[in-house]
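Final report, closing paragraph on structural work. Over the funding period we assembled a curated collection of sequence-structure pairs, and we close with a single example.
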Amino acid sequence: MNSGGIIIRLIDVAMIILFGFIAISDIKVRAQIKLPTDQQEERQQTEEKEPVVLFVKIELDQGYILEENEVVIAEINEAKELEEFLLQRYEQAKASGLDMVLLIEPDENSIIQKTVDVLDICERYKIPKNINYESMQF
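Its predicted structure, as stored:
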C-alpha cells in the first residue's frame, strides 16, 4: 500500500469518529426570533416606568438608613421593623404598577449579619436586590 492510501483511510476513520460524536451529542438550537410587531406595542415597551430604587445604608451605630432619590425616608434600628417597612413599600410599589429594587450599601465597619438580614428579607419576599460594591472601600 502506498502512503496516499493510508492517508485516505486515516481521513475515513477520523470522519467516522467525527460523525459518531455528532450523532451522540445533544445539539439543541435555542434561538429566539423577534417577529415584527405593531408600533403600538413597541411604544408600550419603550414607555415602561422606571423602577423605584430604594437605598438601604447599613451603618455601624445607626442601624439601617433608607433613602429614595437621595432623601432619607426612614432610620430603623431593628431588622423586624425593617422587614415590615420594606414589605409595605414593596406592596405600595406593586399596587401602583412599579417595580422596586433594593440597593444595599453596607458600611465597611458594619456587622455582616445586618447585611445578611437585609438579603434574607429580600429573598423571603422576592424583592429584587443588589449590593452596591462601589460604596464599599475595603
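The two ends are 72 Å apart (CA to CA). The mean pLDDT is 83. We thank the funder for supporting this effort.
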